[in-house]
Specification:
By secondary structure, the chain is an all-alpha fold.
Length: about 80
């Protein structure tokens, strides 16, 4: 949840910069937001990919727990990637 908090902090900083006319603060806030969002989405994609691998391995090996963990990781990754 840290990345979403960093996104929110960036949005706040950007808003304060807009209201006060501080272009530098506005740009910094936008940059912080965008960087945190990109990191969150990248992590989500990795988790989703890991889930696909786990599900596939569980299916091939007959390990239902591994397959279900993989499905859960896929869902978690999709949630993390969403806006």
């Amino acid at each position: 949840m840290g990345d979403r908090m960093d996104e929110m902090k960036g949005n706040i900083k950007e808003g304060v910069g807009k209201v006060t006319g501080n272009d530098r603060m506005e740009a910094e806030g936008r940059t912080e937001h965008d960087a945190a969002e990109a990191e969150r989405k990248t992590k989500g994609a990795g988790t989703e990919l890991k889930g696909h691998v786990e599900e596939g391995l569980g299916h091939v090996s007959g390990d239902e727990d591994l397959r279900e963990r993989g499905m859960a990781d896929q869902l978690k990754g999709k949630i993390d990637r969403s806006t």
